[in-house]
Amino acid sequence: MEIVYVYNKKRSEFGRQCNFSDRPAELYSDIHPEPSLAANFIEKDPCDIAIQCSQEMSEHEVNTKSFESESCGMNHVEGGWPKDVNPQEVEQTIRFRKKVEKDEHFINTILQLGSIMEHCIKQNNAFDIYQEYYEGEEMIEEVQEWSSAKTINVFRDPNEVKRTATCLSWHPDGSRKLAVAYSCLEFQKPMKDMSFDSYIWDIENPNKPEMTLKPVSPLVCLEYNPKDSHILVGGSYNGQIAYWDTRKGSQPVEMSRIEHSHRDPVYRIIWLLSKTGTDTFSASTDGQVLWWDIRKMSEPTERLVLDPNKEGNLDNALGAISLEFESTMPTKFMVGTEQGLVVSCNRKAKTPAEKIVCTYSGHHGPIYALQRNPFFPKNFLTVGDWTARIWSEDIKESSIMSTKYQMFYLTDACWSPVRPSVFFTIKMDGTLDMWDFLFKQNDPTLSLKVCDEALYSLRVQDNGRFLACGSQQGTATLLEISPGLSTLQRNEKSLVAAMFERETKREKILEARHREMRLKERSRSEQSKDDDNIKEGNGEENLEDLIARVEAEFFEMVDFELKKREEEEERQREKEVCEEKEITNGSAEQHGASY
Fold first, then answer.
1. Domain at 280, CATH number
2. How far apart are alpha carbons 459 and 479 in whole angstroms?
3. Domains held by the chain: number
4. Confidence of residue 539 (pLDDT cuts 50, 70, 90)
5. Predicted pLDDT of residue 145
6. How far apart are the first and last CA of the chain?
7. How much is the pTM?
8. Where is 291: in which H helix or E strand?
9. Across residues 582-590, what is the average pLDDT?
């Protein structure tokens, strides 16, 4: 609550308003000389004055025109758009740019402007701005550490009953704060005496959280609004969506109604870059993707059922556990499922069946992480089971790159926001792996044991310098990455682009070869079936003969078994008769011996 003081004063007590302005000089009075006053003065001639040798000076006045200056400012914004194009709409601006680029005069205009710009740049580069002025002195060169990381702070769950740090979110302005969502994801674990609170930490003060968020159910995911840093949105364990305004306290401002919310925990929620900055969408293991407007949280604005059969049946839906959205492609988004599939969707499709475009299959378990490369959005990273894989949108059958199988389960991953070839993964044994596939493909560039418990969440700061890991016992560890892993290297973008293109071509060639082999195998099998049909003949009589032969063989086997069973019974009866005769003869001999 903000306290505001208001002071009241009558207008008559202020006095007259002062109006200052620039204006030319004005003559208010002119005093002329009077000859009668000259009698009061005595004229002395000659006049002797003692002076020292000094510079002769004379006093004179000159009237010059004064120079008037004024300070003014100008707000420069992006302009030049036609009236029918709204610069705030990303889709319209992208469409207009593509239209201009296809114009036949566009290339010639750019070439002409390029020569003028090159001339100006050469003028600016006429002198060496990197000239060493103190070459004679000994300079101590700092040896740059290539790949390392060190722990800066550790933020522990202040409650007695520890919970898992399920999600991390950096403050968008300056990244001096870290929001952590705490929840228990173990199935049917008793929730007695467990706190539902989540916290916002100041990264320089690990002793006490800066603010507490109090949801009605434990938060599984939490995300800052990139346009308004005071607003956060979170997904709860019971499937509800809530948002907070840090200026209004710890309680949620508004929540979704339970009957219109998800049926399972909300594992991921992402803000949409709309005009209002109030749109978001969420994914859950109940198989639904819901769109929300925080100004009206009573029900979702849109709904999508992840049914692979494209029938919209919730019973056949795939459970969503990760979500990806790229602002440069506002109509597309991707969903990672519990079944190991990545579902590519198009929000602007006309029918629900057309919204599910395609699927990518390559993991044996749930896909816990899904993120596009910030420099090459057509390539995305997934983590599931014991591997991390890099995919291309052009190839749906297999990934273009993958890590070897690790000894422990991978739980999360993310790209570096400053280096296109670097990504980070965490594992169940508490290890953080930093990969640079330009430097090394088979093994991580750096492996760091963060803690002795399992790591569950990971998030990198926007400048790529700091990284936070959340553990099973609610510990959030803040690490600082060395400049070698957080600074863009020379020619890195071009090298990564070439590698992605090469691997994509290789996978296309391999897939074409496999497709050709499958076609040959199919043609062989069809040919063999045709040959069998030719040998057997084509007619109803051949089929009847075949059935009659099978029946005859069946009855012959039945007769053989019956005869065999009768013979066994006859032998058994003869054996029993012989045993009875032996018993009677033995008893008779014993009777004769007694006499």
1. 2.130.10.10
2. 11
3. 1
4. very low
5. 52
6. 127
7. 0.61
8. strand 288-293
9. 60
Structure token pair of residue 367: 């896909």
Residue 178 to residues 224, 249, 503, Cα–Cα distance (Å): 10, 17, 37
The answer to whether residue 226 sits within a structural domain is: yes
In a domain, 490, yes or no: no
Q: Which residue do the tokens 């002195």 mark?
A: 137
pLDDT at 590: 53
Q: Is the pLDDT of residue 283 over 50?
A: yes
239-246 long-range Cβ contacts below 8 angstroms, 24+ apart? 239/263, 239/264, 239/265, 239/266, 239/284, 239/286, 240/216, 240/266, 241/266, 241/269, 241/280, 241/282, 241/290, 241/292, 241/297, 242/215, 242/216, 242/297, 243/294, 243/297, 244/213, 246/200, 246/211
163 closest CA partner among 460, 476, 407, 467: 476
Does 472 fall in a domain? Answer: yes
Q: What domain range is 438 assigned to?
A: 149-485
How many residues comprise the chain?
595
In a domain? residue 287: yes
Strands 332-337 and 320-325: antiparallel
- Residue bearing tokens 């040998």: 535
Residue 326: pLDDT above 70? yes
Pairing of strands 379-384, 422-427: unpaired
Burial of 226 (0-12, 13-18, 19+ CB in 10 A): middle
